[in-house]
User: Which sequence fits this backbone?
């Protein structure tokens, strides 16, 4: 059985099912049998996600604002 990558209570990014968007989630638990993480989104929604749908916060780079224009 593979070891788990994320710990209970850890804040990470979870992909919303059916979407390519990732949102901040908290790991609630891990089921080694099904290899699914139960996560909680900021709005309170709890879902089960596969490990490949979860990324560490550090893997996301903040985008710089492009509101400052360099055109004359």
Assistant:
């Amino acid at each position: 059985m593979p070891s788990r990558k994320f710990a209970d209570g850890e804040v990470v990014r979870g992909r919303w099912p059916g979407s390519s968007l990732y949102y901040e989630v908290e790991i609630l638990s891990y089921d080694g049998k099904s290899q699914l993480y139960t996560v909680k989104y900021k709005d309170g929604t709890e879902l089960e996600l596969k490990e490949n749908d979860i990324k560490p916060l550090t893997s996301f780079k903040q985008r710089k604002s492009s509101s400052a224009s360099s055109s004359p």
